[in-house]
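Table 4 source record.
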Amino acid sequence: MPKTFVEGEETLARQAHRRVRQRIIEGRLLPGQRLPLRPLATELGMSMAPVGEALRELAREGLLETEPGWGARVRRLDSDSLRNQHILRTALECEAVRQCAARVTDSQLQELTTLADELDGLIDSHGDWKQVSEFDSRFHLRIAQLSGVRILVDSLRTNQLVRILARGGAIARHLERPPHQHLLLLDAIRTREPDVAERAMREHCQRSMELQLAHLTILALET
């Protein structure tokens, strides 16, 4: 079986993985950009072994593509690939929110409310896109965590990373979003009715897909 990183274990390979992944997330490494092993290892101040291990893990996460004889490059996402990722996201999020709604406690609802309020405030005020991305990821992953199903959390985390590739390093500010969208989603969870929560999450995911596909089209026209 391929080696995977142990959470909390800060080996050289994990350091390399974290640093390269952050560059991809922030848009400093662009889709299609090649990552030759030796120059990258030199830049990171490491030997090629841990960096190679980090690149293999990033490929397993879906952030890199590997080609025999060419090495690794940042994954490109076309509209079909992105739509597929959003369809997968919808399936994961809908099941997570059903399980969450059925078991969430009052204190956990308050925790989600705090996250949703901060997130919507950042979105509605066109706040820093890095903060928006961080809070959005935390909010949706917390719902998955509260589902009590670990595989949903792990799968959703990977899906989030892949969808970030299509952003071009920033969230589209010029595309209109409904106000208080995460607080409205939370209202559905607060009913503690799985069908109601799933319906709200499905609509939320559908809007997200439409926005990101529109943004991807704009990015393609600008390049």
